[in-house]
Design a protein that fits this description.
Blueprint: H1 3-6, H2 17-33, H3 46-51, H4 56-70, E1 81-88, E2 91-97, H5 105-110, H6 112-118, E3 123-128, E4 134-140, E5 166-171, E6 176-179, E7 186-189, H7 196-208, E8 214-218, E9 234-236, H8 239-262, E10 279-283, H9 287-290, H10 295-310, E11 316-322, H11 332-335, E12 340-343, H12 349-356, H13 361-365, E13 374-378, E14 384-389, H14 394-414
Parallel strand pairs: 7-11, 7-12, 8-9, 8-10, 10-11
Antiparallel strand pairs: 1-2, 2-4, 3-4, 5-6, 5-14, 12-13, 13-14
Helix pairs in contact: 8-10
């Protein structure tokens, strides 16, 4: 490797841009005067040795700079800086500073296949870095999303609290993606077979394992949420029953807001649970509420929108899913209220855009159809992670419900409150 070519490794040895630039100029001048010169002739400088590949990491840095240069993602005048290279079980994680280049993560994503090929990786993927202007490039020798993910970690506990982050899936870098249910709402969408129901099951199971949670399930298909029925505080299969649950939930929210106003508080806190327990409302198929085209359907959709909009401060969480991602099923004014969104495989950009927005929609169309549970998890901050959820079998869910149901009954017996005694025909889940 020539001196001029190798000098693209500006980050080697932690050199500043100015110091690296001076070194490059010296090396370039020396090479022009003597084309056969070698880095050793510059002495023992760590910078020059790193440039010339005195370590595996330096060789990788040089290879990355060369690949980025070929793809026109960096130049001598406006170079990238490699901030860190972290070994992983599946490959390498590389943090790159783009501030001087004018490039974006989308520019890198468009060249993902070329970069993977140039760097000898099975795959190259990109995510947000540790600060603005940086990205993480994942160079994978193997795909963690195709490996055995083992058992869902929550199963080892047998107990959960709603304000604990829930292990949701394994990310491309081998880390664990987490979802917060506390004072948040989650929208899940994807075509049939994308794994939407399996992903939702993790969230419902975690909520069920908190004995203080008031769990309200709406299942128009009658079979998707049926395994959780014994743990549910309310269970609906008909549209009219779903409307009753929506009405009851809105009444609870309004009562809680009056209480917050009276005591000059901003939101329900975890220690308020004996009086105002967290409410988790699950709607398995959003289309059965928003897309029926009737006057009653429009009224129900508006009630749902209000619940999602007002629920955060009142400790009400909505988990809603759809396998019919379209604008009439998930209108923008409802979608944007969900703090967290998960999108599985979609057949078109338009379908994907409905769930995760236009910036990353194309990624959902690239998910292998034979990889259920894989999707993009979009956080309220706008950052996203590609991950694959764990699989919960019917036996796993049955075991969770068997533990959670008696725990819920004990909690109700020990924490009886007039605020919680609301008459509702849907409250008896055995009906």
């Amino acid at each position: 490797m020539g001196i001029f070519k190798g000098a693209f490794n500006l980050a080697a040895g932690g050199y500043t841009a100015a110091k690296a630039g001076k070194a490059i100029a010296n090396m370039h001048q020396a090479e022009m005067q003597n084309p056969g010169i070698h880095a050793d002739q510059f002495g023992d400088s760590a910078f020059y040795k790193a440039i010339y590949g005195r370590s595996d990491e330096a060789q990788l840095r040089a290879a990355i700079y060369e690949a980025l240069t070929v793809q026109r993602l960096t130049t001598q005048e406006n170079p990238v800086a490699i901030r860190a290279i972290t070994p992983k079980s599946w490959g390498k994680s590389v943090e790159i500073d783009l501030m001087r280049t004018g490039k974006t993560i989308m520019d890198y994503d468009e060249r993902r296949d070329a970069l993977a090929g140039a760097l000898g990786a099975h795959n190259a993927t990109f995510g947000p870095g540790s600060r603005p202007g940086r990205i993480i490039m994942h160079l994978q020798h193997q795909d963690p999303l195709t490996q055995d993910r083992g058992q869902w970690p929550v199963l080892d506990h047998g107990y959960w609290r709603i304000f604990w982050p829930i292990p949701f899936g394994v990310c491309e870098d081998g880390s664990t993606a987490e979802v917060d249910l506390w004072q948040s709402s989650i929208l899940l969408g994807g075509l049939p077979g994308s794994g939407k129901s399996v992903a939702a099951s993790e969230l419902i199971a975690a909520a069920a394992l908190d004995p203080s949670v008031d769990l309200r399930l709406c299942d128009p298909k009658r079979v998707e949420l049926g395994l959780f029925r014994d743990r549910a505080d309310a269970f609906a299969t008909e549209f009219e029953q779903t409307v009753e649950i929506l009405n009851r939930t809105l009444a609870d929210i309004e009562r809680r807001y009056r209480w917050l106003e009276e005591y000059k508080l901003r939101k329900i806190e975890p220690h308020h649970a004996p009086v105002f327990p967290a409410i988790v409302l699950v709607l398995d198929e959003l289309a059965e509420i928003t897309a029926l085209g009737t006057k009653e359907s429009k009224a129900a959709a508006e009630k749902l929108r209000r619940i999602v909009a007002l629920g955060r401060a009142a400790s009400v969480t909505v988990i809603s899913g759809t396998q019919k991602p379209s604008a009439d099923v998930v209108p923008t004014n409802l979608r944007d209220l969900f703090g967290t969104r998960w999108g599985g495989f979609c057949g078109s950009f338009g379908q994907a855009e409905v769930i995760v927005g236009s910036d990353v929609a194309m990624e959902l169309t690239r998910i292998p159809a034979n990889q259920p549970g894989t999707g993009l998890l979009l956080a309220e901050t706008g950052q996203y992670q590609k991950c694959r959820s764990w699989y919960l079998s019917d036996a796993d869910i049955a075991a969770i419900v068997a533990m959670a149901t008696p725990a819920r009954k004990r909690w109700l017996a020990e924490n009886s409150s007039p605020w919680n005694q609301v008459e509702d025909s849907t409250h008896n889940n055995n009906e």
